Amino acid sequence: MKTVEDILRTKENASNTIEPAAMVIEALQKLIAVNLSYLVVFENGEYTGIFCERDYTRKLVLEGRSSRDTMVRDVMTTELPEVTLTDTVEDCMYQMNTRGARYLAVFDGGDFAGIITIHDLLREVLASKEQVFDNTLANSLLDSEESGKFF
Predict the structure, then answer these.
(1) Rounded CA separation 39/37 (Å)
(2) Does the residue 128 lie in any domain?
(3) Is 150 a residue whose pLDDT tops 50?
(4) Does residue 95 lie in a domain region?
(5) How would you classify the pairing of strands 17-18 and 38-43?
(6) pLDDT for 109-143, tens place per residue?
């Protein structure tokens, strides 16, 4: 099974970073520019969390705050579930499912290595669907269609 390291190897170099002192409006503009759902927050070169669309909607919009007057540090997510480079796709799916997360922080010996998203995992599952899904449902539908019992 593929590992976190395999997934990170296929991702482009991250240009989706922001400082915690940046205003949320700047973060939103950057999200649009990089066409992603999250930004990695670094302060003095150290990973401190992420800012994502969910942070914006739940911690800003629903609380009536202004994106022009609120800093990223005030609404960012700082406690993501963590995985290592050797964890598998299955390990990641388990972490996301049990923790209700859409993002996982990846560490390599204590050093930040990247972010794994739920979309990364879905792409991996779809790429290896033959190993994940059996053809039971498809065969059942084909049998039903051939016998005239198709929906």
Answers:
(1) 7
(2) yes
(3) no
(4) yes
(5) parallel
(6) 999 999 999 999 998 888 876 654 555 555 555 56
